[in-house]
Specification:
The chain contains five helices and twelve strands. By secondary structure, it is α/β, with parallel strands linked by helices. It folds into two domains: 93 residues, Beta Barrel (Elongation Factor Tu (Ef-tu), domain 3); 124 residues, Rossmann fold, CATH 3.40.50.80. It has a six-stranded antiparallel β-sheet.
């Protein structure tokens, strides 16, 4: 277990904060997609959070980025004080839902729901620098337009041609939203699946994780190419 310090807490969505943990003085190697257990220093309670930054980002910026869900009062819970300068205990890295060290596939698709984007963002950013000429797609669902974390970042990558990016909102909203609506279905997935060898990663609510493998198999993706994580 390591004791680290929160460098910054920033709003990511109305229900989540982007928490940057300072790595100065600590060696912390992990695979894209892994998580950490984190809680206030000396406390008994810790909760797991996927690391949202790629390993390359962490080595360059000397931080871990976590997407932490919060209550209506903006607090994460009794286990974690969201304040710059607060000291936290960190266990990890944890988990086997990771981007492979070597990837033969040239097509990769990430399917995210809500804050399930966190490990997939780490994988996506890692894939763009570690995989030769990857064709990367991201399909991201959220309850409302305001609840897309990292949307500007993904939009910029799409504008540069680095990824294919699609979004859908699953609840009625008064927001000025002209994009897709409804839960992710086969028609939403199809434009991003480029052949049976497409490597797919899925993270989000149980309903999303349960539905996506069947839809991907209907599109011809082999079962062994589909990796899932629940949260």
């Amino acid at each position: 277990m390591l004791t680290m310090r929160i460098r910054e807490v920033a709003a990511a969505t109305p229900r989540a904060r982007l928490v940057r943990i300072d790595l100065d003085g600590h060696a912390f190697e992990y695979a894209a997609g892994q998580a950490v257990l984190i809680g206030d220093r000396g406390g008994d309670a810790k909760r797991p959070y996927s690391i949202a930054s790629a390993p390359e980002d962490a080595r360059r910026d000397r931080i871990l980025e976590l997407l932490v869900g919060v209550r209506e009062n903006g607090e994460a819970g009794d286990h974690l004080t969201l304040r710059a300068g607060a000291e936290v205990d960190v266990d990890g890295p944890l988990g086997t839902f990771t981007f492979p060290a070597e990837v033969a596939e040239r097509q990769v698709v990430f399917v995210a729901g809500g804050t399930g984007i966190a490990p997939l963002r780490a994988m996506l950013r890692h894939a763009l620098v570690s995989t030769p000429r990857p064709r990367v797609g991201l399909l991201y669902s959220a309850r409302t337009p305001e609840e897309f974390a990292f949307a500007d970042e993904f939009g910029d990558l799409a504008e540069r041609g680095a990824i294919e990016f699609r979004q859908t909102v699953t609840r009625e909203t008064t927001s000025d939203w002209s994009g897709a609506r409804g839960r992710i279905d086969r028609d939403a997935l199809a434009p991003l699946v480029h052949g049976p060898d497409t490597l797919c990663f899925i993270c989000g609510p149980k309903s999303l994780v349960d539905d996506m493998p069947m839809l991907l198999r209907e599109l011809g993706v082999a079962a062994e190419k589909i990796r899932i994580e629940e949260w």
